[in-house]
Design a protein that fits this description.
It is built from 12 helices and 33 strands. The protein is α+β, with helices and mostly antiparallel strands. Bound molecules: (2R,3S,4R,5S)-2-(hydroxymethyl)piperidine-3,4,5-triol.
Length: 667
């Protein structure tokens, strides 16, 4: 069977030059496929054609089928009217009489208009250095963003933005952006083909992948979200933030604002005990903290990171009466209680591992590589899934816990699953993540008031998949307030400040021994969801007074910070000496701006700050939240004035910061 092809040459067949929504490998395809399968008879050719479609409200489904075999793919689309963000996924259905193996499956391909002037933005990082923003011209060929780590990773984050190079700035120009909703190994291919078409294809990583689909079974792909803004990269991130808050995180816009929390990790590390935590809780309550979180060290034989993971009983020496006395104390101080867990891990030095050495990812007879002295439980196993769910459920049943900080401190190695048939072992890449999501979903259903933070030794598991089940995320273990400006800036290209936990920690910081004023540290953290992680036992009365004032101020602006529209007025990227952000409330009646100076030089004043996003004709009263405005700043002026005339702030010296608010007033 052969057919004539209307492609542009014998080398460039139409299957390669057509802008395909979802294309399988077969029929001479050379661009990145969305689907690649192998049949038991050796055939690996799959050519999908349109069968039917169906529109239901904001959802569209398109059914495709192979030209001869009973393999169907349902393409699924759902549009969010408020932001234009489109969710795409695909379901592969094996209606043949035998099994087949899926070697690659994407949610779909986003096709951009033809062009040679596109620029890709993406995020890279590593532990304590997450969220670096990078830009590169899109050239002929392919750029691959990926994780082969079993989880999201921070070396690349599953987010992209593409604009037209040279015709863009923060708030104008075309931007196409997208993010994967998947917390396992993933890949995104950004490809410019031979006729300058741009295709972005994304889903689970095809490296070491293989999913056997038995006759009659189907596999649902990951979700891939994407949108478009003509308001520059700033407009793109504002749309994405709005979408995340309204459509991704649990409870959407009905969710509570993030409480101010205290976490003891940097203060006590593993040395947690009832008396020490109660002392910290009293001090935290005195400055207005609303949630007290006990971090690592409360369970099993957990004296250091060498032992205890997997043994989720309360350590009887540290907490002789269980957690209840501490939780009661925290409640009596007017705070709710949170607890750290790392459910997917086990230390070889634990009762759990001694009992179930077969529960970890491993290849029979091969070494088991440790990371932070721990191994990965294989959550794809039904018994492991059950164990993890049961211990968490029991912990939550027995204790009044409002919040779990869910940590995950290493990536996969030796991802074997010897308990199942060899041809099913690679299913671990999918089943593990599905079980992770199902545990989170079931826990939330059984404990509806529970809130969860996704943490992975910092920001190594932040993506739109995990965010469907978690209320906030931890962006980085790097809590240096100056480094955080860059980290937080990168983070907000993809994710909303409202879910970004940001702690005020000690000075000098453990990270790089930098000393920063307490006000500076607060202002840096107040751009996200405020937390305190300092050792309060070392604070002086003045520190408590400052902290109390800053926490009060944060509570006044948090609705705006957590739910408003973020404008990057001066970027901290590329070694900038300054950083300024502004957030405007949804109703445009309130705004708050944060300004940071690295180091002043040669008597230059701090650049004038031109606000954005205000109503031009409305009147706004300006007030310093911390620091000083220039003496000639009017008290009240129009939105146009603040946006076109701007504001001068008095910032001189090294590591200085200030913040001010604008409140709409009647004319
Ligand atoms: C890594 C986290 O990112 C830290 O905040 C802390 O919870 C430690 N793990 C505890 O082991």
């Amino acid at each position: 069977m052969s057919h004539a092809d209307p492609g542009i040459s014998s080398f460039d067949s139409s299957i390669n030059t057509t802008r395909q929504e979802f294309v399988a490998w077969g029929g001479g395809l050379y661009v990145e496929p969305d689907l690649k399968v192998a049949f038991p008879d050796g055939n690996r050719d799959l050519v999908l054609q349109y069968v039917s479609h169906n529109v239901d409200g904001n959802r569209l489904r398109i059914l495709l089928k192979d030209i001869s075999r009973e393999v169907y793919v349902e393409l699924q689309y759902q549009v969010d009217a408020a932001t234009g963000v489109l969710r795409r996924s695909a379901q592969v259905q094996n209606r043949t009489a035998s099994s087949l193996t899926i070697e690659q499956v994407a949610a779909g391909t986003w096709n951009l208009p033809r062009g040679t002037d596109y620029r890709l933005r993406y995020l890279t990082g590593r532990w304590a250095g997450e969220w670096s923003l990078h830009e590169q011209l899109i050239q002929p060929g392919k750029a691959i963003l990926e994780s082969r780590r079993g989880s999201t990773g921070d070396q690349n984050n599953p987010w992209f933005a593409i604009d037209r190079n040279g015709s863009n700035d923060q708030d104008s120009g075309d931007v196409w952006f997208g993010a994967l909703g998947w917390s396992g190994s993933w890949q995104m291919s950004i490809e410019q083909d031979e006729i300058h078409q741009i295709r972005v294809t994304g889903g689970p990583n095809s490296f070491d992948f293989g999913y056997r689909l038995a006759a009659g079974e189907h596999l649902q792909s990951t979700d891939f979200y994407a949108g478009y803004s003509h308001d520059g990269i700033g407009g793109a991130s504002r749309l994405l933030h709005r979408f995340e808050i309204s459509s991704i995180v649990p409870h959407g816009t009905d969710a509570k604002l993030r409480p101010v929390l205290y976490n003891s990790w940097e203060a006590t590390e593993f040395k947690v005990d009832e008396a020490g935590q109660e002392t910290l809780a009293e001090k935290a309550a005195s400055i207005g903290v609303e949630r007290f979180v006990v971090d690592d060290g409360w369970f099993g034989q957990r004296a250091s990171d060498r032992a205890g993971l997997g043994d989720w009983y309360v350590n009887p020496v540290k907490f002789p009466h269980g957690l209840k006395p501490l939780i009661d104390k925290v409640h009596s101080l007017g705070m709710d209680f949170g607890l750290w867990v790392e459910p997917e891990m086990v230390n070889p030095d634990s009762d759990l591992y001694r009992k179930h050495p077969d529960w970890v990812l491993n290849f029979t007879g091969r070494p088991r590589s440790e990371g932070r002295n721990q191994l990965m439980l294989n959550l794809a196993r039904p018994d492991v899934r059950e164990y993890v769910f049961q211990f968490l459920d029991k912990l939550l049943d027995e204790n009044d816990i409002a919040f779990l900080k869910w940590d995950y401190n290493r990536n996969w190695s030796e991802p074997g699953w010897p308990a199942v048939a060899p041809e099913d072992q690679k299913k671990v890449y999918i089943n593990y993540i599905q079980n992770l999501y199902s545990i989170l979903e079931e826990l939330r259903a059984k404990h509806p008031k529970l809130e969860i933070e996704s943490c992975s030794g910092g920001g190594s598991r932040v993506d739109l998949g995990i965010m469907r089940y978690t209320d906030e995320v931890w962006p980085s273990d790097n809590t240096d307030a100056f480094d955080r400006l860059l980290i937080q800036d990168g983070f907000t290209y993809a994710y909303a400040p409202g879910v970004m936990m940001a702690w005020v920690t000690d000075s000098p910081t453990w990270v790089n021994q930098r000393s920063l004023s307490l006000e500076y540290r607060f202002l840096s953290s107040m751009q996200g969801s405020l937390g305190i992680g300092a050792n309060l036992n070392n604070w002086k009365p003045d520190d408590f007074a400052t902290a109390k004032k800053m926490v009060e101020q944060y509570k006044r602006i948090r609705q705006t910070v957590q739910r408003g529209s973020l404008y990057r007025l001066i970027s901290p990227q590329k070694g900038s000496e300054q950083s300024v952000t502004e957030t405007v409330s949804e109703d445009q009646n309130h705004a708050v701006a944060f300004a940071f100076l690295h180091s002043s030089q040669m008597l230059y004043p701090f650049p004038r700050i031109y606000l954005r996003g205000l109503r031009p004709d409305a009147m706004y009263r300006i007030a310093a939240l911390d620091g000083k405005l220039s003496a000639d700043t009017p008290a009240v002026a129009s939105g146009s004035f603040w946006m076109q005339n701007g504001v001068d702030v008095e910032l001189r010296g090294d590591f200085q910061a200030c913040a001010f608010t604008l409140e709409r007033v009647e004319r």
